[in-house]
Amino acid sequence: MKTYRIATIPGDGIGKEVVPAGQQVLSALASTTDAFAFEFENFDWGGDYYRKHGVMMPDNGLDAIRDKDAILFGSAGDPDIPDHITLWGLRLKICQGFDQYANVRPTRILPGIDAPLKRCAPEDLNWVIVRENSEGEYAGVGGRVHQGHPIEAATDVSMMTRAGVERIMRFAFRLAQSRPRKLLTVITKSNAQRHAMVMWDEIAVQVSKEFPDVKWDKELVDASTARMINRPASLDTIVATNLHADILSDLAAALAGSLGIAPTGNIDPERRFPSMFEPIHGSAFDIMGKGLANPVGTFWSVVMLLEHLGEFDAAKRVMQAVEAVTADTSLHTRDLGGQATTAEVTAAVCALLGEPAAAAARAA
Ligand code: NAD
Ligand code: MN
Fold first, then answer.
1. Which InterPro entries match (predicted)?
2. Which label site among 104, 263, 314, 317 has the fewest CB atoms less than 10 Å from its CB?
3. What pTM, to 2 d.p., does this model score?
4. 15 Cα: distance to centroid of ligand 2 (angstroms)
5. Are 109 and 257 a contacting pair, CB within 8 Å?
6. Which atom of ligand 1 is nearest to the CA of 91?
7. Which ligand is nearest to the CA of 105?
8. Residues 249-306 pLDDT 10s
9. Digit-coded pLDDT (tens) for 188-203
């Protein structure tokens, strides 16, 4: 029997509610099979750790998780600590430290979800957004001088490298090729940003020659927001820069019904380091600690984690259980217009997976 070693990092806010829920689902799954087991190790990094130690995670923290098979992450973000400290001190430290350069964000309208686009059939919206996850606008290059003085100046420099753009473009073409429609949209802003984004366009043309069976087109990022709403079925796989894809994927999540449903994987395609799976939402200060968080985004992230481990049948079983639960509106959390709690949704998914304990409880 294979034992997968999983690091869980709940982080802050509702991350502390949804990551244990995700772990429960993985445990329920493992209890129904002899094929694999999980060995979890939890890390209490985040805002509370910062209050005690002055850092979001230990300096040598990456070494503690380097040998894991995967990481399940919640959220970094604390009401009392500036966001750039929490984000750079934890999530980006892991993404960059493990060179997880491909951020993959699938979006679909799950059964039972009342999505806001009224002229869009559920099957019209089936996208995967590939976000460049290691450089670009979030490279961290820049500086600030003369703070507080009238001559104060600040820069955030977007940095693109040929190596960085080529590898994300190749990843996106390969992903598009693996999907039934073999359709890729390359998103840019190469009219206004005339250096790096023009290089991005040129590299797209070059890499496309390696994938003659993939149809592809180009769209400017502003126009693509309108296209997502007006012609959702014209899109399938999408590749965009760190900033552009960050914004587009929140829009995509909202169009699919809720930010609480959307998953993501921060992937090291070369598998030199563990990849990290997380819901795309943040700490949700307005609902944290109340048991109202929708755990579906985390469960879908667990599905991506299982796929990354090569456990495709198990991934399919979890996704089917999640879809059966979303199809039942009495199991919708408040973000979907329902009244179910995080714990109720989690128990329902575990029960559908046939967890022996849940089955015994039902029989009793
Ligand atoms: P957010 O995603 O935390 O919340 C936005 C809105 O969506 C809120 O109204 C929230 O209640 C709702 N929401 C989000 N997830 C939900 C869920 N699972 N169930 C139900 N409702 C949900 O975004 P924000 O308010 O911009 O950010 C709050 C904090 O989280 C900030 O500190 C930010 O930096 C951080 N953040 C972290 C990450 C990350 O670690 N990956 C991502 C985004 C935001
Ligand atoms: Mn984001």
1. ICDH/IPMDH, IsoCit/isopropylmalate_DH_CS, IsoPropMal-DH-like_dom, TTC_DH
2. 317
3. 0.95
4. 14
5. yes
6. 40
7. 2
8. 999 999 999 999 999 999 999 999 999 999 999 999 999 999 999 999 999 999 999 9
9. 999 999 999 999 999 9
Beta-bridge partners for 136: 159
Here the tokens at position 323 are 């879809």
Write out the two tokens for 38: 């999980």
Q: Which of 87, 281, 341 to mutate to test the pocket of ligand 1 (most atoms within 8 A of CB)?
A: 281
Residues 6+ apart with CB under 8 A from 201: 186, 188, 190, 218
Measure 241 CA to ligand 2 centroid, in angstroms.
Answer: 12
- State how far the Cα of 262 lies from the Cα of 256, in Å rounded to an integer: 8
Tokens of 153: 């100046």
Helix (H, G, I), strand (E, B) or coil at 145: strand
Nearest ligand, CA 249:
2
Q: Which of 296, 288, 299, 305 is nearest to 261 (CA)?
A: 296
Closest C-alpha to ligand 1, atom 36? 282
| Residue entry with tokens 């997502």 | 228
* Average pLDDT by stretches of 10, the chain with 364 residues: 97 98 97 96 98 97 98 97 96 96 97 92 95 96 97 97 98 98 97 95 98 98 97 98 96 95 97 98 96 98 98 97 97 97 98 73 57
CA 7 from chain center: how many Å? 16
